[in-house]
Amino acid sequence: MGSVTCNPLAPPSTHLLLNPSKIPKFCHSRRQLHGSQRASKIIAYYGLKTPPYKLDALEPYMSKRTLEVHWGELHRGYVEGLNKHLAKDDVLYGYTLDELVKVSYNSGNPLPVFNNAVQVWNHDFFWESMQPGGGDIPKYGVLEQIEKDFGSFTNFKEKFIGAALTLFGSGYVWLVLKREERRLAVVKTSNAINPLVWNDIPIISLDMWEHAYYLDYKNDKGTYANVFMNHLVSWNAAMSRMARAEAFVNLGEPKIPIA
Q1: Is 207 assigned to a binding site?
Q2: Which partner for 193 in 189, 198, 209, 250 could form a disulfide, CB atoms 3.0-4.6 Å apart?
Q3: What DSSP character marks residue 112?
Q4: What pTM, to 2 d.p., does this model score?
Q5: 151-186 burial by CB neighbour count: b if 16+ within 10 A, else e?
């Protein structure tokens, strides 16, 4: 068998995804110093990404206290857990977070690092799926694409909120662009699974873990999901994500303008 050239910038190839034990150690790991200085290890893992707004900016629909607990404690815990995994064994060092989610999912047989990696990705994406003064209806090509794929924006909202109410246990609800079918779809995922592992392109997401809504809405998932859709969801973020997705998926008409 030939050796694998280590390249920290290269995306994971198919045989590495299917055989994580063959993932190469990356070139970053050691740097020899001269004289009496010991060899040092260069480390640069993942940092806690700040939401794109102040922690009280989503009030009264999502409280500052919820953000302090959800982002400041739980999200931070996933980042720290991910970095602890990587510090123990740097075999996965050098991947982008997208690549790390896919390779650690390991074709449905998740590696120990997967849960922390995917929850870091999910939370970054969830915070950016909301904005102060959000809700209302999307504009331009995003609305046209939703109407094309769901029949109407009302149908889409009903399907999205219905998915939130029927999700068993903890998980997420997503609006995704399906590459092969070239259409938008609402999907729900259990626990921390995200649509990247199925090669779908996420557009917006709603966190349906209890800690995302309990402080503000107790067990009222219906009100939480409706408030998200009517007052929090960022259609500006959706438009940017759809515009990027068109680089990979030819949707024909309508064209999504670059935000």
Answers
A1: yes
A2: 189
A3: T
A4: 0.82
A5: eeeeebbeebbebbeebeeebbbbbbbbeeeeebbb
| Token digits of residue 96 | 């982008």
What are the counts of helices (DSSP H) followed by strands (DSSP E) for the chain? 10, 3
| Nearest alpha carbon to residue 25 among 102, 95, 77, 125 | 95
CA distance 30 to 37: 13
Domains of the chain: 64-249 (3.55.40.20)
Per-residue model confidence as pLDDT tens digits over 143-173: 999 999 999 999 999 999 999 999 999 999 9
User: Is 211 known to sit in a ligand binding site?
Assistant: yes
123 is known to lie in a ligand binding site: yes
Instruction: Using alpha carbons, select from 118, 90, 99, 71 the residue that is nearest to residue 29.
Output: 90
181-224 pLDDT tens trace: 999 999 999 999 999 999 999 999 999 999 999 999 999 999 99
